[in-house]
Specification:
The chain is α/β, with parallel strands linked by helices. The protein folds into two domains: 93 residues, Udp-n-acetylmuramoylalanyl-d-glutamate--2,6- Diaminopimelate Ligase, Chain: A, domain 1 (3-Layer(aba) Sandwich), CATH 3.40.1390.10; 215 residues, Hexapeptide repeat proteins (UDP N-Acetylglucosamine Acyltransferase, domain 1), CATH 2.160.10. Helix content is 16%, strand content 30%. Strands 8-11-14-17-20-25-28-31-34-37-39-40 form a twelve-stranded mixed sheet. Strand 39 and strand 40 form a beta hairpin. The relative contact order is 0.06.
Length: 344
Amino acid sequence: MKFTAKQIADILEGVVVGNPEAEVSKLSKIEEGELGSLTFLSNPKYNSFIYTTNASATIVNKTFEPEKEISTTLIKVEDAYKAFSKLLEFYNQVKNNKTGRENPHFIANSAKIGSNEYVGAFSYIGENVVVGENVKIYPNSYIGDNVTIGDNSVIFAGVKIYSESVIGNNCKIHSGTIIGSDGFGFAPDENGEYKAIPQTGNVIIEDNVDIGANSTIDRATLGSTIIRKGVKLDNQIQIAHNVEIGKNTVIASQSGVAGSTKIGENCMIGGQVGIVGHITLGNNVKIQAQSGIGRNLKDDAVVQGSPAFGYTDYSKSYIHFKNLPKLATTIHKLEKELNAQKDN
């Protein structure tokens, strides 16, 4: 897909300086720009590359004035970084704007599919499924019975959504993710053998939620596992049964949340964090990477460590921890001096 510099300038409400008919068909870093590519310059640290880049067009701030000859066509905008981000979003919309139904696929007769849909090959859509407008379901996806998917949501290839799950509007669920699998619920019988406890609840994912690849969100034992509006989950995250995550909370890769824990709004949780079950985390909580959370946290808490404690205390303690060999040497030296004084 090709665009001219003028077409891009029109999208970004910018001005072309150079050849308005310069064509681009791909994106690149400015230092790696080649003929036919589009790049951007917003950080003055990279100004030198504007004179050597082979990119056909470069988005720059309107205040930028080259100090010597350049070969690239400039597209001047208010804010080059924001403009390039806007262009990336537009590019993704164009690239992913597939419609229609590829074969083979299966859609149950009782399913209701909104207009402007895309259903990729080898996808399965079960009984009584309701799919909104402009939904994209990529190949090899499984949508179980009685699932609801809201408008403008994207289900990428290989996603499995178990029965009764509810997906909101404007959600993105990336490849390999499983929504609504059984929670980890087992109880020992009189012989000590573990028997599965039926997981009869569901998963509710509200609007504007993004879920990374190969993540798992378990259905509730009773009631619902709930992911509130605006939550962003990275790749490879485990959310157990009956967990609730408050709106606009973000969780980085390889973190796990055990059953029935409630996480507040606007929290930031680093990678490889483990959170035990049946606790409550307040709003605006920040948890540093690789921390272990085994207790309730109040609003605005900032913690680190395993088990985690206050971030400031952790930082001070870590300084002492790093100095332990030196402290040990000092203590041994003092012991020798004390023993020598005793001998005298």
